[in-house]
Amino acid sequence: MSSDAAFIPLSAPHLSGNEWKYIKDCLDTGWVSSVGAYVTRFEHELAQAAAVPHAVATTCGTAALHMALLVAGVKPGDEVLVSSMTFIAPVNAIRYANAIPVLVDAEPKHWQMDVNQVRDFLTNGCVRRDGGVFNRVSGRRVAAIVPVHVLGHPVDMNALMKLADEFDLTVIEDATESLGSTYFDRPAGGIGHLGCYSFNGNKIITTGGGGMLVTANEAWAKKARYLTTQAKDDPQEYIHHEIGYNYRLTNIQAAFGCAQIEVLPGYVTRRREIHALYRSKLGSVPGIRFQEEADGVKSNFWLTTVCIDRNLFGMEARALQQQLKAAKIEARPLWQPAHLSPAHQDAFKLPCPVAEDLFANALSLPSCSSATDEDIKRVIQVVHHAAGL
Fold first, then answer.
1. Cβ distance 260 to 17 under 8 Å?
2. Which domains does the chain have, with CATH numbers?
3. What is the pLDDT of residues 164-188, one digit of tens each?
4. Do the beta carbons of residue 104 and residue 84 sit within 8 Å?
5. What are the backbone angles phi and psi of residue 298, rounded to the nearest 5°?
6. pLDDT tens, 194-224?
7. 141-146 and 132-135: which strand pairing?
8. Where would I find the beta strands (DSSP E) of the chain?
9. pTM exceeds 0.85
């Protein structure tokens, strides 16, 4: 490789629309803080994208998850089921609500929350009595489920929603990686009782930071809007009847988001093209296994990720990561599963062997929607060389 070869990032912001125009409008008009026309517009457009009537903009995806848990009625000491194979944010958000995570494994084909394990836990690991469903071991009430759509691929929501209805549990979709993905033609994030998105710099669209809560429940949306604006009951006298949060998105960030969501369909198309190119050139390489796309699912393939069998491929995933790094190509393992995290050792843990396997052997490859075919072919070339091809 030439020493002056360009760096290929994993997932960098792609700025190709009206970002400059809309942000300049904020600066020209002075509407730069947490109110303004772009905030209202961005909320409306995200609600449309999720196919639900209500959206509330927040400072980040984690704030949206925190708010969703609070408005859904999760109480201190309650338990909340959540994917163990996830970025740590949803698990932390459960802690912010003073609740206890119940960490659930992934299933091996699509790498999403194992709904069969959820079913077994609720059926055999819990007992029903007045006031809800209670964990037989801990004695705590189980209040909600937070399925995380890992890498942009939705969880099996039909099966999960059926369980939630049966056990009277609230479902809060962590759709932070899955904006633009669909599940049987329904937008990820708009299927559960609440959904949450992130617009961090590495997501499929970005506002630099920021998040969004969406729901069909008007009362919950109003409550979230109230809590995210410091629970202000009287804006003149500054009277507050509840503890609130400074969680509102700024108009500048919302303007950024309005420009980004205009080009979201093209970004999804491009990431799917990148995934298809990887699969066509790496799918037959011994020791490389791709995340499968389930029937009825259209993933945004936020990050194309492969599992490496070191015996068949010839090296471990992290050794391949170092070879890519030497070629100025960014790749990364998946997150440490939450059941292994030192920060959450007192969580309630279900067996998570699939999550542990993914942590040991999975590697995410560059997936920027701005990446060229030549960029992706360069990544493929390095992987082929590492495999001895």
1. yes
2. 19-262 (3.40.640.10), 264-386 (3.90.1150.10)
3. 999 999 999 999 999 999 999 999 9
4. yes
5. -120, 100
6. 999 999 999 999 999 999 999 999 999 999 9
7. antiparallel
8. 54-58, 79-83, 100-104, 126-129, 132-135, 141-146, 170-174, 182-183, 186-187, 194-198, 211-215, 288-290, 297-298, 305-308, 332-333, 348-349, 362-364
9. yes
